[in-house]
Amino acid sequence: MEPVLTKYVREPNSFELDFFLTHDGYQGLKKALAMQPNDVIEMVKASGLRGRGGAGFPTGMKWQFVDKKTPNPRYIACNADESEPGTFKDHLLMERNPHLMFEGCLIGCWAIGAKVAYIYIRGEFYHVQKILEDQLAKAYAKGYAGKNVMGSGWDCDIVLHRGAGAYEAGEETALIESLEGKRAQPRIKPPFPAVSGLYNCPTAVNNVETLCNLPSILTNGAEWFARLGPEKNGGPKLFCISGHVKKPGVYEASMNTTLQDLIFNYAGGIRDGHRLKAVIPGGSSVPILMPDQLDVPASFDAVQKAGSMLGSAGIIAMDETTCMVWVAKNLMHFYAHESCGKCTPCREGGDWLYKILDRIERGEGEVRDLDLLTSVSNNIAGKTLCAFGDAAATPPLTTLKNFRAEYEAHIREGRCPIPADWRAGTALAAAH
Amino acid sequence: MSFHPLMPYGEGWHKSDRIVAAEGQPFAFTPDRVRQLEEICGKYPPDRRKSAVLAALYFVQEQQGYLTANAMRHVAEFLRITPAEVEDVATYYVMFYRAPVGRYVLQVCRTLSCALGGAERVVEALSEKLGIKVGETDASGMFTLMEFECLGACDRAPVVMVNNEYWHERLTPENCSKFVDDIKVRGEAALSGCYLKVEN
Q1: Is A17-227 assigned to CATH 3.40.50.11540?
Q2: Which residues of B touch A318 (CB under 8 A)?
Q3: Cβ atoms of A155 and A148 closer than 8 Å
Q4: Which end of chain B has the lower number of beta carbons within 10 A, N or C?
């Protein structure tokens, strides 16, 4: 498939407004402004575009739910708080193609009748934010944002809002709380943001990659977009491949492409002399797939059928030098650290799970710890306000399911069965 | 008492603690920052100045290096919210320092993809080179070592962020010593940045 979103990212000036304008820039917006907002929503619905942030919810439907009768203002909140471990696609889009995101924000605003789009960018991406600020000023100066957008008489502002380091701010209601100047903690749903979101006004929260897909839908049509992938999984998709592969990076492909193909062809396969042990296909929050489960299309539906989720398409490949208890412990450290603290099961349980995994990994675990891990995990999953709880319970549950023997070996032998020389990053591990 | 029948819920198994911020010196934003902050407040509805609290706290950090109780009260007054609301936010987000830090804060990504690439060894090497543990500042006041959760550049692992802003990619354990020496001489210019390699 010819790249759509990343076609020009390796051109030296791809982030500049002038470059963007000579490569079909803002043509999708121009087309949208000539249409009725509702027709834009219908078009996006027909394209089957699904949210690229992780849940895969149809974007057109999300917009349709936005309350259009309210006298209150409406908002687009662009979720640029990319923090899911293993995911770095929005980083690339914003760094190399910022105007595509601006154009997407404006199309979204036009469709739902918003006058402001807030782009919530994670605090750690300050080097990207500086590019965005610079380019946004140029877009304002040339009339692509602000007053009288492209001479249409319609006003729309884009505001960059810097976060300050909180994974939870990527959850849509927590993102809204953070935009309001509070702790990034999720709200009770319903009401959903489409009814009562930012400042209690109707809000659509969309991922960067989702919004970046809009201009091409407008210019090439809904049918073109839908045909690029399997049914209900249309359009181009960015896959982030990292871990023990030869060529880690962001690859654009159709969702017809198999996980096998992505890892072994796109990313060049596993580093020399090693073999694949396990794959996390959609960011750290999703269950592990084994090497014999990868011959499935990397689409939302097919990966789910295979027993995991496509999530944010952050594919992490691990070879045989990797201790799976260590993997669970590493990820549990992440979830225990990032838990926002609002719901007790996640706040307390995440920390417990980390401590249990830590003692197993150090060789001080007991046999009953395995049941304890399962029990605590199952008391977090499904018992919290947001999906963080399910995500936090996933690392121990999925590693226990697929690699229980490794846990038992740690307990039986009182140490990690993986040779110490293989510890990630030691010189010997690289030489193997 | 335990929330879970099998958990030993006592010492060491409870993670919440409240760290009270130091009072610090009297604080007021410089006129230039007042102007910039008013401009930022103008991007939100007039009765929603609180939205600018993160921006205000970044300005405090820029001006005096870390957050103090005096500074947080000033921010509260500026945004017309309560000091408790400011402290609530300041204690939540990891990019705010609540104690003095070194001139260069090395923030090493420790999450899975970077860890697979050897981030744990990088932390060990930096710790040895600087003679400090994670969370500490060296005697000269030049370096603070921190571990950060996923920075979002997993293809260029292991990644290090410096001072919440500058990045260095693919730092190997073997290169850590040279990396620190380079920063001592060239400052932020020693960092590789974290940008996609483009074709020229």
Answers
A1: yes
A2: 116
A3: yes
A4: N
